[in-house]
Amino acid sequence: MLKDTVRTGSYRAAIVNNGHLFKGKTVLDVGCGTGILSMFAAKAGAKHVVGIDMSNIIDQAQNIIEANGFEDVITLVKGKLEDTELPIKEYDIIISEWMGYFLLYESMLDTVLLARDKYLKRGGLIFPDNATLYLAAIEDQEYKEEKINFWENVYGFNYSCIKDIALREPLVDAVELKAVVTNPCVIKHINLLTAKKEDLTFDAPFSLMATRDDYVHAFLAWFDISFDCTHKKVQFSTGPHAPYTHWKQTVFYTPSTLTVFEGQAIRGRLACAPNMRNNRDLDIEITYMTENHPETKIHYKMY
């Protein structure tokens, strides 16, 4: 993730280039990992930064912070935010890189919202503060044959019972822009200053307008992130039109191929909820139809 220049460079631009927002302020870094965001905040002039992470990487983060001379400005805490007492009780700014695949898979957003409600001062800032999830449709015959239809004939044997399992597990991969055959549609916008944990369970309508005559083999999702509180807006996209990020895009293959004509709409709904057994996993349901294709509903699991 450190090598993801879009991700890390955007955070650096948002934090370091906005020193007027950080100078003399207290900052909480939720899920601090190696401490890179904490050091950006310290470099931007923060009075004190507290980074918290429950993984063992925080031991190396301590060494990194000392090696860079920030041990007097940055305090690291190992533990789960929900169960840990922090050395500072209120913070001017919360920073976090919480996003997962499909924005919400294995995401720490619920923890960031908890940190906001418990520790952020009135009028405080969150970096980033807005996220938007998009959906489009793609032509992907060649790869679908390789990933899904492969199971129909495995060295002469019928493995089709595996095909349904493979179909219901979304694929995280980089998709070329030329594969996209519809306009994108916003299916979820999250304002981190006002969002509630319940908002992470949603059911959203979509309408995807075909931009050419083609076939549709899958739906494609990606997200954009923005730091709207910054003086000069900083934002980045994880879509197929944008530079590569480690999040790539998320592909949801359809059971059958759709035929679409330019100007025709694919209408439907996307429902998303944390899995009951593990809230970092996702249960996703997509319902869709066109004027020449009956309504179809398929359940996907990201785990």
Per CATH, which architecture of the largest domain? Distorted Sandwich
3D shape: elongated
Largest sheet: 6 strands, antiparallel
Instruction: Return Rg in Å.
Output: 21 Å
State the end-to-end CA separation.
20 Å
Number of helices: 7
- Which CATH C-level class of the largest domain is it? Mainly Beta
Question: Can you describe this structure in just a few lines?
Answer:
The protein has helices at residues 5-16, 19-22, 36-43, 57-67, 109-119, 141-147, 160-167, and strands spanning 26-30, 48-53, 74-78, 91-96, 120-127, 130-138, 171-173, 185-191, 202-209, 214-227, 234-237, 249-260, 265-274, 282-290, 293-302. The chain is an alpha/beta fold and 303 residues long. The strands form three sheets. Strands 6, 7, 8, 10, 11 and 12 form a six-stranded antiparallel beta sheet that branches.
Structure description:
The chain is of the alpha/beta class. It has 2 domains: 93 residues, Rossmann fold (3-Layer(aba) Sandwich); 172 residues, Distorted Sandwich (Hnrnp arginine n-methyltransferase1). Helix content is 20%, strand content 38%. Strands 6, 7, 8, 10, 11 and 12 form a 6-stranded antiparallel beta sheet that branches. Strands 3-2-1-4-5 form a 5-stranded parallel beta sheet, sandwiched between helices. It has a 4-stranded antiparallel beta sheet with strand order 9-13-14-15, with no helix packed on it. Strand 10 and strand 11 form a beta hairpin. The longest helix has 12 residues. The protein starts with a helix and ends with a strand. The model has no long low-confidence stretch (mean pLDDT 95).
